[in-house]
């Protein structure tokens, strides 16, 4: 199986986090997002333990809420002791309503408006990760207006190609995020920030991409960032006290995908950072990473019911289900691969199906060419694995479809963390 929280029971039915998937589908209805709470906590602890072992108290992993943001997720990661990377007032509001401490929130984003900046300062978020000079100047003015000194990290574009798909690569020179090193703009950005009296420039941030498997990406990033830290020290006398190298470790969507040994990778990254800063004669900065996908992806599974199986002789077979690109747009957007299983039974004979959604759009494919039992039919339950990251958070109401509920699975049982959207919810904003 793809992950150790997915199993086949003796009767052929699928279980997830120790619970029968068909029984959950029966109880809660479909489409349904399931989340394995224990796995989320284990993933947080994997980062927290590795950070503690390698950096002592001088490091913190932040959960990147963009991967999945709702009250209960923030409660869970907060209880575990993570910080949070938030990219919008909505994510900050959700985290605060969940009781998450504002001082452990890092406010990201390349397009923060004046209102966003005023909101973040007023909520006393710990750090702003400042993306550009316009934001920098506005933040300084706003901090002055509210009578605070705002801690900031400055987002630098290191010029690294993380060898992931283009839509989620963010470290190369020409991306829209941060300020580029290569062009000399990053140096001017830091120089400018250091003149602003209402900002405390704590350090630097970078993020090179998502779904990263390459061994050397973070080490290469550190080489570049420490090189820049050295330059800032030499030319400006500035000591970088914090370094955030972003998120991005890849997860397995298919059994053939590589497994990233995250604790081992963190140990390498730590050793590399220590060696490079020592060589440069710089103190080791407080270390941050901000994983999203690797905290929640393998804690998720989506369950559907087949509405129809359509055979087009000589062409293909579709299994059409009661969800679609509305609850999982990732194949449509990125051609993202997924493992798809019939949750009710295994088969002696399998056939190739395109798993399609119910939206009025021929591109509404959840996953093409998946192997399912030959006799898969209306009423069968279909499980799509590894949907914990960027599925609920990217869901839409296209075709006026309500978003599925998020049901958390624990050792003791299950509970609803986000309820199903009703037709009335869909009209709630209409006047
Ligand atoms: N930090 C920053 C600044 C980011 O932009 C991201 C992701 C992360 C952290 C978290 O990266 P992760 O550990 O989750 O790879 N919607 C796309 C993914 C977009 C990622 C955006 N940034 C997808 O569904 O694959």
> Based on DSSP secondary structure assignment, what is the total number of beta strands?
21
Contiguous uncertain segments of 5+ residues:
none
Bound molecules: ligand LLP
The DSSP helix count reads 12
Number of domains: 2
Judged by helices, strands and strand pairing, the structural class is: alpha/beta
The dominant shape is globular
Largest sheet: 9 strands, mixed
The Cα radius of gyration reads: 23 Å
| Overall average residue pLDDT | 96
Q: Ends: how far apart?
A: 49 Å
Helix content: 25-40%
CATH class of the largest domain: Alpha Beta
Looking at the overall shape, the CATH architecture of the largest domain is Alpha-Beta Barrel
Structure notes:
The structure is a single chain. This protein is of the alpha/beta class. The protein has 2 domains: 6-36 and 297-427, Lyase, Ornithine Decarboxylase, Chain A, domain 1 (Beta Barrel), CATH 2.40.37.10; 108-291, Alpha-Beta Barrel (TIM Barrel), CATH 3.20.20. The chain is 30% helix and 25% strand. It has helices spanning 21-28, 37-55, 71-80, 89-97, 114-122, 133-145, 185-193, 217-236, 262-280, 293-296, 330-334, 423-427, and strands at residues 6-8, 14-16, 19-20, 32-36, 59-64, 83-86, 105-107, 127-130, 150-157, 179-180, 199-205, 242-244, 286-289, 300-312, 316-321, 340-342, 350-356, 365-373, 381-385, 406-409, 414-418. Strands 4, 14, 15, 16, 17, 18, 19, 20 and 21 form a 9-stranded mixed β-sheet that branches. Strand 14 (300-312) and strand 15 form a beta hairpin. Helix 2 (37-55) runs parallel beside helix 9 and helix 8 runs parallel beside helix 9 (262-280). The protein is globular, with a radius of gyration of 23 Å. The structure holds ligand LLP. Ligand LLP binds at residues 64, 66-67, 85, 108, 168, 170, 207, 210, 246-248, 290-294, 330, 334, 390.
């Amino acid at each position: 199986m793809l992950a150790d929280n997915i199993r086949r029971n003796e009767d052929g039915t699928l279980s997830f986090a120790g619970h029968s998937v068909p029984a959950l589908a029966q109880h809660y209805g479909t489409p349904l997002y399931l989340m394995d709470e224990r796995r989320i906590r284990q993933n947080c602890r994997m980062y927290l333990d590795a950070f503690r072992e390698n950096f002592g108290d001088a490091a913190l992993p932040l959960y990147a809420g963009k991967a999945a943001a709702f009250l209960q997720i923030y409660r869970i990661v907060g209880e575990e002791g993570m910080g949070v990377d938030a990219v919008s007032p909505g994510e900050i509001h959700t985290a605060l309503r969940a009781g998450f401490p504002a001082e452990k929130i890092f406010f990201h984003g390349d397009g923060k408006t004046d209102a966003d900046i005023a909101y973040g300062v007023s909520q006393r978020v710990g750090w702003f990760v400042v993306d550009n000079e316009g934001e920098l100047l506005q933040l300084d003015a706003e901090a002055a207006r509210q009578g605070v000194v705002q801690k900031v990290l400055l987002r630098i574009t290191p010029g690294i190609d993380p060898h992931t798909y283009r839509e989620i690569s963010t470290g190369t020179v020409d991306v829209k995020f941060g300020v580029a090193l290569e062009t000399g703009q990053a140096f001017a950005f830091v120089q400018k920030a250091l003149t602003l009296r209402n900002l405390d420039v704590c350090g630097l941030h970078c993020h090179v991409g998502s779904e990263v498997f390459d061994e050397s990406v973070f080490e290469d990033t550190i080489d570049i960032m420490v090189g820049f830290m050295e330059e800032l020290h030499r030319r400006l006398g500035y000591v970088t006290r914090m370094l955030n190298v972003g998120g991005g470790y890849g997860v397995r969507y298919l059994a053939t995908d590589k497994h990233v040994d995250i604790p081992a990778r963190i140990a390498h990254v730590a050793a590399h950072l220590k060696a490079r800063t020592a060589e440069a004669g710089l103190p080791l900065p407080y270390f941050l990473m901000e994983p999203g996908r690797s905290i929640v992806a393998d804690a998720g599974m989506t369950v559907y019911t087949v509405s129809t199986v359509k055979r087009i002789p000589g062409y293909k077979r579709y299994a059409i289900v009661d969800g679609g690109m509305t609850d999982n747009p990732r194949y449509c957007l990125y051609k993202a691969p997924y493992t798809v299983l019939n949750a009710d039974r295994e088969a002696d004979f399998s056939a190739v199906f395109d798993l399609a959604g119910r939206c009025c759009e021929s591109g509404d494919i959840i996953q093409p060419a998946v192997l399912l039992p030959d006799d898969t039919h209306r009423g069968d339950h279909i499980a799509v694995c590894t949907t914990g990251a960027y599925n609920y958070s990217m869901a839409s109401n296209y075709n006026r479809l309500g978003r599925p509920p998020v049901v958390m699975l624990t050792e003791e049982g299950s509970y609803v963390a986000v309820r199903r959207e009703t037709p009335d919810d869909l009209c709630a904003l209409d006047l």
